Amino acid sequence: MDHHVLEHYSKAGVPKGPLNDFLDSKTSPSFRYIRLNPRKNTNETLSSLDSASPVSWLPSSTNFYAIPNRTINVLQPYIDGSLYGMDCSSGAAVAALRLETVNNPVRVLDLCCCPCAKLCMIVDSLEHLSGCEVIGVDISGNRLNVGKKVVRKYLKGAACDVSLYQADGTTFPGPADDISASPSLVFDSRAEAQETNQQERKKMNKSAKSRERKRLAELMSSSPPSPGEKFDFVLIDAECSTDGALNQVKHKIKAGKDTATDSIRDKLLEEESLTSLQLKLLSNGFANLKDGGSLVYSTCSLSENQNENVVRAFLSSHPDAYIANVDFEASTPPPSIPGSLPGTLRFQPTLGPTTQESFSGSGFFLCKITKGRQKSNEKCSAFA
């Protein structure tokens, strides 16, 4: 492994020996996480799995379970959309928004949404309400093609209205007077429902695709996203060096990709431009947030520059922003450690066998931010 990458992991508290053993497949975690689809028969799904245990440090409504480590894409519940393969540390970013406690219809923005696992969790967390709107934004058309497949697989019949836009997350929704900078609507659950009602199909044919494009164009023309329409909640799982996602690195190495860590090295060497992008994403997400709203900024990086330092820079120029304590209100505390900025959380990657209680999955960082005047009874941390 490149010495820059090794030095980075060592600085982040990941020892060289256990790291190499993990990447060489000498050690593996004892568990993996799954999340159940609430619109399916969850009892039936659980009965088909071996030794599924609920994750005690997250609310039960998140439907996260730990199972013995195994491949899940061959399981029937995965194939039919009854369960998601999703790291619990990653799901913690959505859980931190506490959407299951919301009592009135809300608007939620997922600013870097693909591949849409977190967006699906957002929608699932609002399943108890009707009239909610969830908007996902991503700059990559290829990623959105994947995201649309995930949304179609898991969110059929969901209570929320769901829209996906191809747009720059640093400027979304763009200036109202510049049509050329307008986002491109690539999926809308209302248009999808119309097409499904018109023609149940296994594979979308050319005629159906044409009708879909027409409906999306009509929706964009009648109700384009406006800078004046703010959101109650915003999630920004920002582009990062992905160095905390060690399972992905391991899979690439097992597949014979000798350059598995090259992209991590390159992004770490060009970290200044990456952190500039992250700060722009965080700033624009906050600009889209209503007063009194909540935002979660997260990455799957272990780098302080991409995590706490981005938040520090943001807070220094936003006096109406405060770090809010993350409280999942679950039966046990999360397997996280405090970040270097008070109120932030870090999940260190799990590299070997461990107990379920201490299993955290991939490396992850999250910070919850509120907008507006700080209340005296709130436990928040301003810029430090």
Describe the protein:
This protein is of the alpha+beta class and 384 residues long. The protein has one domain (3-27, 87-183, 224-381): Rossmann fold (3-Layer(aba) Sandwich), CATH 3.40.50. 33% of the residues lie in helices and 19% in strands. The protein has 13 helices and 15 strands. Strands 5, 6, 7, 8, 9, 10, 11, 12, 13, 14 and 15 form an eleven-stranded mixed beta sheet that branches. Strand 5 (107-110), helix 6 (117-125) and strand 6 form a beta-alpha-beta unit. Helix 5 crosses helix 6 (117-125) and helix 12 (271-287) packs across helix 13 (308-316).
Give a short synopsis of this structure.
The protein is of the alpha+beta class. The protein is 33% helix and 19% strand.
Report the average pLDDT across residues: 88
Radius of gyration: 21 Å
Looking at CATH, the homologous superfamily is Vaccinia Virus protein VP39
Query: Termini, distance in Å?
Result: 35 Å
